Amino acid sequence: MNKYLIVFGVTLICILSVQCKKDEIAVPENNLVLLVNKINQIRQHGCNCGVEYMAPVPVLNLNNQLQTAAIMHAKDMAEQNYFDHLSPDGGTPAERAISAGYKGDFRAENLARGYSEVNQVINAWKASVSHCKAMMDAKSKEAGAGMAQNYWVVTFGSYL
Questions:
Q1: Lesser CB count within 10 Å: N end or C end of the chain?
Q2: Which residue numbers delimit the SCP domain (predicted)?
């Protein structure tokens, strides 16, 4: 009898472990790719940022270091319950990019909070002139996105 309980327990732990990892990693990763893809769609077609028309610009390449910086900032904001470009310890977006190993030139960071879907985040950024212009900055060549709970971050950079 004990042998069967042990096998059942080990099987259950394996199933729960895989399920938790799947829920924790797969959904946000899909949202992050979708977020950058939506930004690239806007960049390809151009858009109005306030009253100013922003012409189409080249799409952004995904960058793993910028992605790491964005994810870490989203997690930090969620864990410490703040919403700011500056972390409570005074860390800046550029410092986060460098700490993540980014060798390019940091350009900008967009933040959002309180949204559950990518389209809501994109619409909020399009409605804000400064966030919209950050998405449309032709000098930005690559980006990384992060999400934790309802905190969203995209970090923009360019090659050196």
A1: N
A2: 36-151
Q: Closest Cα to residue 136, out of 72, 34, 65, 50?
A: 50
Which band of pLDDT confidence, cut at 50, 70 and 90, is reported for residue 109? very high
What is the C-alpha end-to-end distance of the chain, expressed in Å? 65
Question: For residues 155 and 61, is the Cβ–Cβ distance under 8 A?
Answer: no
Q: Report residue 153: phi and psi, to 5°.
A: -140, 140
Kindly tell me the sign of the dihedral angle through the C-alpha atoms of 25, 89, 64, 127: positive
Residues 111, 85 contacting (CB under 8 angstroms) = yes
Write out pLDDT tens, residues 141-160.
Answer: 999 999 999 999 999 999 87
